[in-house]
Design brief:
Blueprint (H helix, E strand, L loop, with lengths): L1 E6 L10 H18 L3 E4 L12 H11 L4 E4 L2 E2 L5 H14 L4 E6 L4 H6 L7 H17 L3 E4 L4 E5 L13 E5 L3 H10 L2 E4 L6 H17 L9 E9 L3 H20 L23 H4 L5 E3 L1 H15 L3 E5 L7 H14 L6
Parallel strand pairs: 1-2, 1-12, 2-3, 3-5, 4-5, 5-8, 8-9, 9-10, 10-11, 10-12
Antiparallel strand pairs: 6-7
Helix pairs in contact: 1-11, 2-3, 3-5, 6-7
Length: 343
C-alpha cells in the first residue's frame, strides 16, 4: 500500500492571508516527505475559495521544494483547458520533478465553473475525452495530429518531453457516474475514487464494473492503481479526534455545499449528482470520514485494500482551517502508527 496527502486548498480569509496559506502548504508538503508519505495530491478549482486554479504552477513549486515524494493532480479539470498547453505544462512538471508526476484527470462537477468558462456541462465528457486523447498523443508521439469536435492538433511536437516513458501515469477520477468507471477501464488507466459520495455497496459495484471493463479491454489489474481515501484526522482516541476535528470538517462541508446545487444537474451526464444528500456529521461519521485513533485507521485502510482493491490511500487533513499544530500532529500519528502496518 502506498500513502498520499491530498489537499483541495480550501481557504478561509478570516483565518490567514492567501500568501500565508501557501507558505503553510509548502511547509506541510516538505513535512509529508520527511514523514515518508509517497505522494501529495493537489486539486484544481475556479472562481471560489478553493484557491488553486493552476495546479501545474503549484506542482512546479513542489518539484523544487521536495526531492522524492510523487506529485499528483486530484484533479486537473481537462474540459476547461487547451489540451496542447496542458500537455506542455505537465510535461515540464514531469521534467523538473525528475519524473515524479502522477497525472490525475477528470471533468469536475461544479456547474458554476462551467458557467464561468461559458461551457455547457452537456459537452463535458466530449471535451474531456478529446483533451485526454491529445495530451496522451502529444506525450507519446513526437509528431502528433488530431481532428475532433472541440479540439485539433496539426503536426504538434511538444518540447521538452516528459521524463517518464512512454508517458506519465494517468489516473482517471470516478465519483458517482458508472460511466466514469467504464471510461477509466476502457483506457486502461488507474482509478481515483471519493468514497464520501457513495455507500460501500455502490462503490463495490462500480469498482467491479471498472475491473471488468479493464479486463475486457485487454488490461490486467496489476497494471493499474486504485487510489482512494478519506477526509481524515487522527488522535489518541476517537472521542478526542472528533472533539478537535468535527467543527472544522463541518465548516468545510458547509463551504463545499455552497458550490453544489443539485437542481443545476439537469443533463444526463450528471444525473447521479441530482440527489446528493445534505448531511450532518452523525450521518457521515464514521463510515464516510476517518476521524479516529490509529487502531481504527488501520482497520479502515485494511478494509479499503481488501474489499475494494485500493492500492494507494490518501488522507485529506488540511481542511476547514484546521490549526497547523493539530494538522501536523495528525499527519505524524498517521505516518508513524498507521502507514508502517502496510509497508
Amino acid at each position: 500500500m502506498k500513502f498520499g496527502l491530498l489537499t483541495l486548498f480550501d481557504h478561509y480569509a478570516e483565518d490567514c492571508s492567501e500568501e500565508q496559506y501557501y507558505k503553510n502548504f509548502f511547509d506541510e508538503a516538505a513535512y509529508a516527505e520527511e514523514l515518508g508519505f509517497d505522494s501529495i495530491w493537489i486539486g484544481e478549482h475556479h472562481f471560489c475559495r478553493y484557491i488553486c486554479p493552476s495546479p501545474q504552477i503549484i506542482a512546479g513549486g513542489l518539484a523544487q521544494r521536495t526531492k522524492k515524494i510523487r506529485i499528483g493532480t486530484s484533479i486537473a479539470l481537462l474540459p476547461h483547458h487547451d489540451p496542447i498547453r496542458l500537455a506542455e505544462d505537465y510535461a515540464l512538471v514531469d521534467l523538473l520533478s525528475g519524473g515524479r508526476l502522477d497525472f490525475g484527470v477528470g471533468r469536475g462537477f461544479i456547474k458554476a465553473t462551467y458557467d464561468g468558462f461559458n461551457q455547457a456541462m452537456s459537452e463535458s465528457r466530449g471535451r474531456f475525452d478529446e483533451c485526454l486523447d491529445i495530451i496522451e498523443g502529444t506525450w507519446r508521439q513526437e509528431d502528433f495530429s488530431y481532428e475532433g469536435k472541440f479540439y485539433r492538433a496539426n503536426h504538434v511536437t511538444i518540447l521538452p518531453r516528459p521524463l517518464q516513458r512512454p508517458a506519465p501515469p494517468i489516473f482517471m477520477a470516478a465519483a458517482l457516474s458508472p460511466e466514469s468507471f467504464v471510461a477509466a477501464g476502457k483506457k486502461g488507466h488507474s482509478l481515483m475514487l471519493v468514497p464520501l459520495f457513495q455507500s460501500r455497496q455502490v462503490l463495490k459495484e462500480n469498482i467491479k464494473l471498472y475491473l471488468e471493463t479493464l479486463r475486457q479491454s485487454g488490461f490486467g489489474p496489476g497494471s493499474v492503481d486504485i487510489v482512494a481515501g478519506y477526509h481524515s484526522f487522527v488522535d489518541e482516541t476517537p472521542a478526542l479526534a472528533r472533539q478537535k476535528w468535527e467543527n472544522h470538517f463541518m465548516r468545510y462541508v458547509r463551504f463545499a455545499g455552497t458550490l453544489m446545487d443539485p437542481a443545476g444537474y439537469i443533463n444526463d451526464q450528471y444525473k447521479s449528482w441530482r440527489n446528493l444528500p445534505r448531511s450532518t456529521f452523525d450521518q457521515i461519521y464514521p463510515d464516510q470520514v476517518m476521524c479516529a485513533d490509529a487502531e481504527q485507521c488501520v482497520e479502515r485502510v485494511a478494509l479499503l485494500g481488501e474489499e475494494f482493491g485500493v492500492t494507494h490511500f490518501w488522507v485529506y487533513m488540511d481542511l476547514g482551517g484546521l490549526p497547523q499544530h493539530e494538522l501536523r500532529g495528525s499527519m505524524e500519528r498517521f505516518a508513524t502508527r498507521v502507514m508502517p502496518k502496510f509497508r
